[in-house]
Amino acid sequence: MIRIVDSFPLELMKKSHDFVNDTFKFALFEEVAALDGDTTAYSTTGEVTAAGYTAGGVTLTAATGYPKLEAINGINHACMRWDTSVAWTLTETISDFRYGLIYNDTSTGNLACVVLDFTCGFAVASGPLTIQFPLANRPIINIRPGQGNA
Can you say how many angstroms the Cα of residue 101 is from the centroid of all Cα atoms in its chain? Predict the structure, then answer.
C-alpha cells in the first residue's frame, strides 16, 4: 500500500518541498516502526540495520520530465515519479523489514512524504535487494483538487 502522509498537503502549501531542487530519499524500516499516515519525518527509530544498507536510505532520482501535470481520467493531477527501483547490496541478512519511507532530506526535519507498507515483515538474505516501485505507469505522488491521497 502506498500512502501519502497526512502532513504532506499542508507542507506543500507552506512550500516545504521543492521537487525540482530538493533531495528525496527512500529508507527501509522494520515492522516495529509502524509507519502510517501519521508519520511526519524520517527518524532512525526502527530503521533497518545491516551491513550493506546505508542508514538514511538511498537518494531517489526523478524520472525524466517530472514533476509535471498529468491528465488521469480527464482530471489534471500534479504528479511525481522517481526511477522505477532502488537497490542495496547487503553483506548480511535483514531479518524483518516492512516499510519504506520517501522523505525530503533537504527540508528542515527530514519531512516524510510517502509511506510504502509491504503489509508484512520480510527477511532478506545477504546479496542484492531491489525495491521495484509498483505501477510504472502511475505516479507515486498524485495530487488532484479535493483528494489528498493517491
Answer: 4
Q: Spell out a b/e string for 11-39, using b for 16 or more CB atoms within 10 Å of the CB, else e.
A: bbeeebbebeeeebbbbbbbbebebeeeb
What confidence tens digit (pLDDT) does each residue in 41-60 have? 999 999 999 899 999 999 98
Does some domain include residue 25?
yes
Q: What is the pTM of this model?
A: 0.85
Structural domain including 30 reads 2-60+88-133
Where would I find the beta strands (DSSP E) of the chain? Answer: 2-4, 24-29, 58-59, 68-72, 75-80, 85-90, 94-104, 112-124, 127-132, 141-143
Instruction: For residues 104 and 127, give the distance between their C-alpha atoms in angstroms, rounded to a whole number.
Output: 28
Task: Provide the sign of the torsion angle of the four alpha carbons 8, 149, 4, 135, taken in this order.
Answer: negative
